[in-house]
Amino acid sequence: MKILHVASEVAPFAKTGGLADVASALPRHLRRAGHDVRVFLPLYDTIDAGAANLTPLLDGIEIRLGAHRYQAKIVVAGSEPHVHFVHCPALYARGAIYTSDADEHLRFLALCHAALAACQRMGFAPEIVHCHDWQTALLPLILKEQLAWDRLFADTRTLLTIHNLNYQGLFPAAIVPDTNFDHSAHLLHQDQLREGRINFLLHGILYADGVSTVSPTYSREIQTAEHGAGLDSFLRARTSTVIGILNGVEYDEWSPESDRLIPHRYGAADLAGKERNKEALLTGLGLPYVPGVPVAGIVSRLAGQKGFELVEEVMPDLLRRHRFQLVVLGSGERRLQEVFIRLQAAFPRQVCFYKGFSNPLAHLIEAGADLFLMPSRYEPCGLNQMYSLRYGTVPIVHQTGGLADTVRQWQPQSGEGTGFSFERHDAAGLRWAIEAALTVFDDRPAWRRLMKNGMAEDFSWSAQVKRYEAVYARLRD
Ligand code: ADP
Fold this sequence. Notes:
The protein has helices spanning 18-32, 49-52, 89-92, 104-122, 139-146, 190-194, 200-207, 216-221, 232-237, 272-285, 308-321, 334-346, 359-368, 384-390, 401-406, 427-441, 444-455, 461-476, and strands at 2-6, 36-42, 54-65, 68-77, 83-87, 128-132, 157-162, 170-172, 197-199, 210-213, 242-244, 295-302, 325-332, 351-355, 371-374, 394-398, 420-422. It is an alpha/beta fold. Helix 11 (308-321) packs across helix 16 (427-441). The longest helix is centred in the N-terminal third of the chain and has 19 residues, at 104-122. The two termini are 12 Å apart. The mean pLDDT is 97.
């Protein structure tokens, strides 16, 4: 199949979260399965052009968005020739992937138009255009309406993957002329226009041939008023086309047996290296290492979605009453940074907060911690709990979205299960789960069994790619 992916983030070039991992791994695995895949993303000025070893492919791509005109070039990555960058400094030289600039909508409309124009120039007729999140959610309608004349796209079908329903691309209706739909504005959602808004993600839900999300549970949750972020009725109206496919894990990068970013490699058969990584982690962060004292880890964007207000509520008391340590890597909202700064100040020998984004430290935390905390309010898929399982780092999660689909509650009688999963998102739930984990930690044979159960789980991309292939085939036929 000929498949086009268009996304605002693709790892390792541009990443703020899980979208980047998916938009990198899925195309690569589709290529391995024999498909002809092209990926398009903006050439942000934050991308190290030298490291990406860019070579020019197409020049003089003209993009017209309402009264705005842009000139773009397409360059490809030397290391990964299927990855195409849209080079347009007027839009992408902003020092960040996302901005709150007045032309944010233009930055991603231009991405969609440039990708489609490049297909025209290359004579690449995609059978599937796979869009990701609000940034590319108008693409299906652009294709159906503005490019209906082009036979190149006559057999093209579109799939929109929602990585997070709460980021919708909401703009004032005054930008409608910039979408080039001003002569076919009846196709846009009228109620919202009357209210003075245009919601990009909604138009993907209305017009993409298929809609997917990144876990089966999340695909059901977003069709409820509680988790639907105002779009549940539109999703329910298309319920037969809304499916959930878990993200896969790149075990080439995330396996303790072969991880080059950790000092001591280990596996389920020999866990000694894990203890040495724990010592390296703690001493590196300036915390005392005491054998037998469990370490809990967090690696996360610091955003309201992630549920850290529960950590704030329960942690002081738990840290006082139990012997354990907490290592946190994260960046994001200031109020959540302050939660961890305060915890560190109050418990300097037990807590370390590393503010920032660091892939090597993320790997070392996965390898060196005993427990991993993800008390997310909602979680479309989540990757870190799956990484944690592979590293024998027992996840403690709220039973929601992809966390519910990947972590099985520990059953002491049968010795089954891979982690601790609390049902109600409240402080009592998180406290129960952490205390249950700390109790099992002291029972060494049970804990070893729990670790090994998790390490034996397989969430590799090879299985997930087959699911996407099946969806693509259904859309095409
Ligand atoms: P989300 O997409 O909501 O941020 P996911 O769990 O799906 O959450 O993906 C997060 C990805 O980003 C993981 O690969 C995780 O390791 C990485 N990550 C998040 N925050 C940091 C950080 N501060 N430093 C390093 N990696 C991070």
